[in-house]
Design goal:
This protein is an alpha+beta fold. Helix 5 crosses helix 6 and helix 8 runs antiparallel to helix 11. The relative contact order is 0.08. InterPro entries: FAM69_kinase_dom (IPR022049), Kinase-like_dom_sf (IPR011009), PKDCC (IPR042983), Prot_kinase_dom (IPR000719). This is Extracellular tyrosine-protein kinase PKDCC. One of its GO terms (molecular function) is non-membrane spanning protein tyrosine kinase activity.
């Protein structure tokens, strides 16, 4: 008993040391070989306090280590979940991606971008050009550490974490949508347990920074919310059934070429809550609860869709939609916020409401009737910039440029009205740049 306790304590200490080593990698640039060597050192550190019983690599012919009953049950549940998901996905065509272990071995410029509860993420430059994000099990991450503290079995704990990455790969192979990060390939290292040594190669994005988003023009923030609604519509009717993002947080998303994409799918679920009566179908959030119906087949109707939608409301719509929106669109945006905040809208009705706002904005119907002001600028409209005095740029906020005032306008008349409303503005230019809605650029 004392020996087991000492071994568990040594394993926990080794895990802490491995975690410290991982933190030291962050931002460093490594070769693939160096990165894998460091990952291996972290994994070895996990087993240092266990002797041979917790080792992640067995000697040929040796029996598998006996795992604690609780860990065996957790492994069984995750294995069952993965097999069920693979069976559900079996009817469709899988997108396997074109990259494999050979491409991974030739990649260079590896740098650790960050890590989470289960996985570590790195950036890698491909030999043929371009870059990808590499995801692998974080051997010194919190999930493995807590598991080791509970069970004292590092190899089994790494396998438990690996099932989440395998699940994510399976989902990304089947789900194809512009709002889901693309799977470029995967590598299973046959030198060890393939359930442990798996690396996913994904589309590379940049972390979503909400503070930065709040400083962008309203049109760009509306685009992000609209793309999120389209993603949730796809998830509600995906090839695998209705999918809920159980860990719905801004940190689960990245920006790729100005587009919002969900990048973490390991906590997604295709299961809808089972029920016997309506009282079993209460959708709870920290500040609100919503009663739902129990269907004839014993499932809470629309619970996955509604959970995603309310999370989109509280994490994205509330902050990104109303601020600095055109005044004529404010009532429509308030309707969206109220209806999604009370879950009176489903995802279809929400998309319809967004598309109505988009139509009003693109067509210019949102513009309030005002006196024609363009003639006041007729002598210099297309020659001078949006400036206070000659040679000095006029700055406004929010702007597409930090160096001056670059706004999106529907017409030169709208530009004239904006300039006329600002005492510092003396003139403006209509540029050839166009936004994603086709609006003109104004500086």
């Amino acid at each position: 008993m004392a020996a087991a306790a000492a071994a568990a304590a040594a394993a926990a200490a080794a895990v802490a040391a491995a975690a410290a080593a991982v933190r030291a990698w962050r931002g460093s640039r490594l070769s693939v070989a160096a990165l894998l060597a460091l990952l291996a050192l972290a994994l070895l550190a996990l087993t240092a306090g266990r002797g041979g019983s917790g080792s992640g690599v067995r000697q040929p012919g040796s029996p598998p280590p006996l795992l604690p009953p609780g860990l065996r049950e957790e492994l069984r549940q995750r294995r069952h979940d993965l097999r069920r998901l693979e069976a559900a996905a079996g009817g469709g065509e899988a997108a396997t991606g074109g990259l494999g272990c050979g491409d991974l071995s030739l990649a260079t410029g590896i740098s650790v971008l960050g890590w989470g509860f289960t996985k570590v993420v790195a950036r890698a430059a491909l030999a043929g050009g371009g870059a990808v994000a590499l995801k692998s099990v974080h051997g010194a991450g919190r999930e493995v550490r807590q598991c080791v503290q509970r069970y004292g079995a590092p190899a089994g704990c790494r396998r438990l974490a690996a099932y989440k990455l395998l699940k994510e790969v399976t989902l990304l192979q089947r789900l194809r949508h512009p709002g889901i990060v693309q799977l470029h390939g995967q590598c299973y290292d046959n030198s060890g347990d393939p359930e442990i040594r798996v690396t996913a190669m994904l589309e590379l994005g940049s972390p979503l920074e909400m503070i930065q988003l709040l400083q962008t023009p309203w049109e760009e923030r509306f685009k992000i919310c609209l793309s999120l609604v389209k993603l949730l519509l796809y998830l509600a009717h995906s090839p695998l059934g209705s999918i809920v993002l159980l860990d719905f947080q801004p940190r689960q998303f990245v920006m790729v070429d100005g587009n919002l994409k969900v990048t973490d799918m390991d906590d997604a679920s295709t299961e809808e809550l089972s029920c016997k009566e309506d009282n079993d179908c209460i959708l709870d959030f920290p500040t609100k609860s919503f009663p739902l119906k129990c269907s004839a087949v014993g499932k809470c109707e629309g619970i996955n869709e509604k959970k995603n939608l309310f999370n989109a409301y509280r994490y994205f719509f509330t902050y990104l939609l109303p601020h600095s929106a055109p005044s004529a669109l404010q009532p429509f945006l308030s309707d969206i916020l109220n209806a999604t905040g009370d879950l009176r809208y489903g995802i279809n009705e929400t998309l319809n409401a967004f598309e109505k706002v988009l139509h009003l904005y693109k067509s210019g119907l949102y513009l309030q009737k005002r006196p024609l002001l363009l003639k006041a600028f007729s002598n210099n409209t297309y020659l001078l910039g949006f400036r206070m005095v000659e040679g000095e740029d006029y700055k406004c906020w929010p702007s597409y440029s930090h160096l001056g005032c670059l706004l999106s306008v529907h017409s030169a008349e709208e530009a004239a009205a904006i300039c006329n409303s600002q005492s510092q503005c003396q003139s403006f230019i209509i540029t050839q740049q166009r936004s994603w809605t086709g609006e003109l650029g104004q500086t």
